[in-house]
Amino acid sequence: MKKMMMVFALAAVLFGAGFTATTAYAQDAADGAIVNADGSAAEKDAPAQETSFWQVVFGSGLVGVILWLALFGSGAFAIYFIVDGYILVRPKKMMPDTLINGVKAAMDEGDVMKAIELCDNDPSSMAKILKAGFAHVEEGFDVIDEAISAAGDIEIEQMMQRLNWISICGSLAPMLGLLGTVQGMILTFATIAITGVQIGPLSLTISQALYTTAGGLCVAIPAVTFFYALRNNANRLVLRMQVVTSDLIKNLRNVEVVEA
Predict the structure, then answer these.
(1) Residue 25 pLDDT > 50, yes or no?
(2) Is 146 exposed, middle or buried (0-12, 13-18, 19+ CB in 10 A)?
(3) pLDDT value of position 212
């Protein structure tokens, strides 16, 4: 829980810093000198009022603040599950070399029980796929191959159950941004109805709407990108594990299982 809170806080700070920098840049551009056609300085109607990102967030009303909190939460969870995905989908974690070398040595010696014991003592996905093959050692190589494929499907499904949370965050963020846009436009027309067409208040409410849209896209684009990258990497690793498993147990036809 503490790690989740730290990730949430970090995402909020980075998100706010980025938008604040964007606002400051836009404000500097707006404060530039304005000249007439003859090159003389033009008069300004009123000094520009600086508006920070945090003023946009907390000035968007209760619904707007809730939406921004939801966007921050979506971004924080996306970061958390992306890091978790990269920790999960690693070749060294899913198919450790020590297990593969140990099973290979056992199979070269014809000791299937030793290979099964090595798999029992290893929690990796590779060990589970190998155990599925060894469980049908007396039923023929075709049955073994089907068991390996079924175990691989189970492993990829279990990994996808965790990786899908990244996709959920990536899908939820644009909808939250769109809802914020609708809420901002409602505030815009409400402002027009109350005060008439005044550029200052009108521009502020429109900027609030556009900020939420941008915020949702800033969360969604990296989340969707990392999701597909991790998903493809997981699929490749599972296929590699199936190929390695088939290669390790290809000589099971000539091996007898001897109970200790």
Answers:
(1) no
(2) middle
(3) 86
Residue 256 above 60 pLDDT? no
Q: In whole angstroms, what is the distance from residue 108 CA to residue 248 CA?
A: 9
- Angle at which helices 199-248 and 61-88 cross, to 10°: 20
- What's the full length of the chain, in residues? 260
pLDDT higher than 50, residue 37: no
Sequence-ordered alpha helix ranges (H) in 31-94: 53-58, 61-88, 91-94
Domain ranges of the chain: 2-28+51-254
Nearest to 129 by CA among 108, 167, 161, 100: 100
Residues 78-131: tens digit of each pLDDT: 999 999 999 888 888 888 888 888 888 888 887 778 888 888 888 888 888 888
Backbone φ, ψ for residue 118 (5° rounding): -60, -40
170's CB contacts (< 8 A; 6+ apart) are 78, 219, 220, 221, 223, 224, 227
Cβ atoms within 10 Å, residue 251: 12
